[in-house]
Amino acid sequence: KAKQHGRNSYQWYTQELNEKVNERLTLRSDIQKALEREEFEVVYQPQVDKQGKTVIGVEALIRWNHPEKGTISPAAFLPVAENTGQIFSINLWVMETACRYIKRLNDQGLTCPSVAVNISPMQFLRPNFIESVCNVLERTQLDASFLELEVTENALMEDAENAILTMYKLKKLGLRIAIDDFGTGYSSLSYLKRLPVDKIKIDRSFIKEIISDQHDAAITQGIISMAHHLGLPVIAEGVETEPQFAFLRKNHCDAFQGYYFGRPMSSEGLKAYLHQKQASPDEKKVRGTEED
Ligand code: C2E
Ligand code: MG
Ligand code: MG
Ligand code: MG
């Protein structure tokens, strides 16, 4: 394409490409420094039950508090970390930090029944992944039944046989596995039947227009019905409004996560949130502290 427009645009093109490459290199070394300087933070977003009242767990999400650039969202740096392989240490750091914190909360009597951690496709199929998970549980002393791993469909389909084997081994440890962003990948339904998963998370993109778009509503209803027929509970992510909550509830969705119930919050924020929930369990929603 660049060639068609002659020499000038070709130069412009390579210049832009160089800038991109440089940006990536900077990002790569910035990520390395961030790991060393502890600029990463784990935030926690609550997940609530059918009634929208009881906290059934939290999802751990990474944030980067960059000294100059401010907060950088995971979408901006995780793809780079995937390319450089830095994602492995980042994810294990998130897992360990989250497990340690949930263990501490539970020890303090602020019960949080589950913490979900996102696992990258590449990481899931690594030979030493199971061992890494064991090590984290060992080091943090968190009971495996508190840990949930979120894996996307594509991660499982890439090498389905291997993925199924890994899942069985992980489940033997006593943890749970959820399929994240369900509906956006290319998993075949016949495989889904064979996967030892515990939960399906409907992707936020379907929930967004669930009230105004008949197709999104239909897809969501279909996913819930299919999951239930397979004996799997469903959690909806990205629930922002009361009508969305009402629609999902009417259609027998089992659990919810989204700004309507609570934003991702700092560890201190989560502590306060759980405190308040325990003190007044009927309080329907307590806003988190993170600003988006
Ligand atoms: P995800 O796992 O699907 O996480 C849900 C995302 O939706 C989070 O974005 C969360 O902040 C956002 N969200 C939750 N409720 C709402 C809502 O009501 N409205 C809107 N508009 N958004 C909502 P976040 O934290 O920016 O993370 C984006 C993605 O980055 C995550 O999607 C996950 O795939 C990935 N990610 C985040 N942390 C980690 C991590 O520690 N490891 C790995 N491998 N991936 C991570
Ligand atoms: Mg997730
Ligand atoms: Mg998701
Ligand atoms: Mg999503």
From TrEMBL:
- A single MF term (Gene Ontology): cyclic-guanylate-specific phosphodiesterase activity
> Can you tell which superkingdom this protein's organism belongs to?
Bacteria
- Please state the span of the N-terminal signal peptide per the UniProt entry: none
Enumerate the spans annotated as EAL domain: 24-278
Q: Which GO terms describe its biological process?
A: cellular response to nitric oxide; phosphorelay signal transduction system
Sorted keywords for this record are: c-di-GMP, Phosphoprotein
Record-given protein name: cyclic-guanylate-specific phosphodiesterase
| Source organism of this protein record | Vreelandella nanhaiensis
The taxonomic lineage of its organism, from the top, reads:
Bacteria, Pseudomonadati, Pseudomonadota, Gammaproteobacteria, Oceanospirillales
